[in-house]
Amino acid sequence: xxxxxxxxxxxxxxxxxxxxxxxxxxxxxxxxxxxxxxxxxxxxxxxxxxxxxxxxxxxxxxxxxxxxxxxxxxxxxxxxxxxxxxxxxxxxxxxxxxxxxxxxxxxxxxxxxxxxxxxxxxxxxxxxxxxxxxxxxxxxxxxxxxxxxxxxxxxxxxxxxxxxxxxxxxxxxxxxxxxxxxxxxxxxxxxxxxxxxxxxxxxxxxxxxxxxxxxxxxxxxxxxxxxxxxxxxxxxxxxxxxxxxxxxxxxxxxxxxxxxxxxxxxxxxxxxxxxxxxxxxxxxxxxxxxxxxxxxxxxxxxxxxxxxxxxxxxxxxxxxxxxxxxxxxxxxx
Length: 333
Hints:
This protein is α/β, with parallel strands linked by helices. The chain is 34% helix and 14% strand. The chain folds into 2 domains: 3-100 and 302-329, NAD(P)-binding Rossmann-like Domain (Rossmann fold, 3-Layer(aba) Sandwich); 102-293, NAD(P)-binding Rossmann-like Domain (Rossmann fold, 3-Layer(aba) Sandwich), CATH 3.40.50. It has helices spanning 14-24, 35-38, 60-66, 84-89, 102-117, 120-128, 155-166, 191-197, 217-220, 240-248, 280-287, 302-320; strands at 3-6, 27-30, 47-50, 71-74, 93-95, 147-151, 170-174, 187-188, 200-203, 228-231, 254-257, 291-293, 328-329. The chain has a 7-stranded parallel beta sheet with strand order 8-7-6-9-10-11-12, sandwiched between helices. A 6-stranded mixed beta sheet has the order 2-1-3-4-5-13. Helix 1 packs parallel to helix 12 and helix 5 crosses helix 7.
């Protein structure tokens, strides 16, 4: 019987894991540990599925090779936590789950767009202080009168564009590879025009060398002072120090961040006693009344979790059968 180890497993994933185990007649061992701390558990295993919040320790790859593994499946869309070159040097094929549920992240972004347009962050702060007044500068935009800019009109960005279009919003898009089928739903413009015209900008790009630091002080200076920014892609896409500065200077109005630089130090941790002093930029964002922070949960829906489990495990079986997975990640040339 094929034996598979899954690391960083949460309780909410167990139902899907057990269903897959029964359907495919495989033996799946799960652990809440990261692969860095569970590498010895791969002895005697045929396959490996991981989920990382930090980069895999370089020492892991040769240990996996020594234990006879041939692959690593990450049950996430992002694979920047895995050193693809190092994996290949150790004979390990890497796969990811590029489209576990575009709707899950798109719906989260839509919710945050509504929150920014309706300025709910202001009212949340005021009501928490027992202040039930409202003020002239808190007047909202109805979404069908708003212009929403999407940077990265791929699976997730394209899904969001369709939702926004159905609600009557004017949708602008910027993508290095505009999709012909999205024309009519999205008006493709330059990045600069999108920044200038949008009432809210939503980011949906992969993390790669060209998207790291994609939104800087220069970009935010082009935005409307009433505009909001949503980041449900990856933290390093936005330069955090520049974002904080732009918010303080009122160059932009607000931000809703599901991903942010340094999140690996705080996501899935209990900071109620420790606080955030060791992560000063995150602490500053957390203390701002015009910033909405969520702990990288845009993906966290019933369908997305099931698909992340199923697709990653299917890739394990595909690779072990000597077949090529369509989700195989190649090292950069």
